[in-house]
Amino acid sequence: MAGGEDPLRALLRAANALLQQRRYRAALAVIKGFRNGAVYGAKIRAPHALVMTFLFKSGSLREKLKAIAQATYAHSRNLAYFVFTYKGLMAVQSRLQGKKIPFHAFLAACIGGWLVFGENNPINSQIIMYLLSRILFGLSRLAVEKGYIPQPKQDPFPLVAALVWGTVLWLFEYHRETLQPSLQSSMTYLYEDSEVWHDLSDFLLYNKRTDSK
């Protein structure tokens, strides 16, 4: 039995020794980046797809589970491909120039974004909008930090919140087609379905009555 375990232990020792080799660090980081992208994408998308599918989509249980699996796979795959592409291009640029410079990150991410997230579909659209909101906040803070705009005397967040909600509800009420489908579904549930009921069952217990009364 011990003899059967020796090859496995030797393989593990060899693998661990390889992981400690500094000359392979960049390539190994690319591989682990692919792994982390796949895992993180699945962790983020699966709960979101589960909730949105069972809240707003019709169809059989099989169809709903299939939709959840497809959305989770797409998010996981795209994020894994992007991290792999980004880290690979960063390693190549650093090796060619002998050092890392800020433009490397921008260029590598632009290429990765074009190749991986360039297709206009619901998954990519949600990811891009998520990032866009964070970018706007980040650039605003950076502008203040660098002195390009003065430090606000009062917290601007209440004004931002008011403008964001005012704008999105105006769009929902008068230009609904400009909003993403999942946001339309959420807002329909909150602001339109709350105006329709027939009796106590679909006033408190359910959103919509399923019988034909």
Question: What attributes characterize this protein structure?
Answer:
213 residues, mainly alpha, 3 domains, 8 helices, flat
What's this, in brief?
This protein is mainly alpha-helical. It has helices at 2-19, 25-56, 61-97, 102-117, 122-145, 157-174, 181-192, 200-205.
Compile the SSE list and pairings.
Blueprint: H1 2-19, H2 25-56, H3 61-97, H4 102-117, H5 122-145, H6 157-174, H7 181-192, H8 200-205
Pfam family, one: Tim17
Protein name: PXMP4 protein
InterPro entries: Pmp4
| Total individual domains | 3
Order of helices and strands: HHHHHHHH
Question: Main sheet, how many strands, which sense, barrel?
Answer: none
Structural class: mainly alpha
Pfam families: Tim17 (PF02466)
GO cellular component, one term: peroxisomal membrane
Organism: Tachuris rubrigastra
InterPro entries: Pmp4
Plain-language structure description:
77% of the residues lie in helices and 0% in strands. It is mainly α and 213 residues long. It folds into 3 domains: 23-118, no CATH class; 119-151; 153-197, no CATH class. α2 packs antiparallel against α3 and α3 (61-97) runs antiparallel to α4. It has helices at 2-19, 25-56, 61-97, 102-117, 122-145, 157-174, 181-192, 200-205. The radius of gyration is 24 Å and the shape is flat. It starts with a helix and ends in an 8-residue tail after the last helix. The mean pLDDT is 90. This is PXMP4 protein. InterPro entries: Pmp4 (IPR019531).
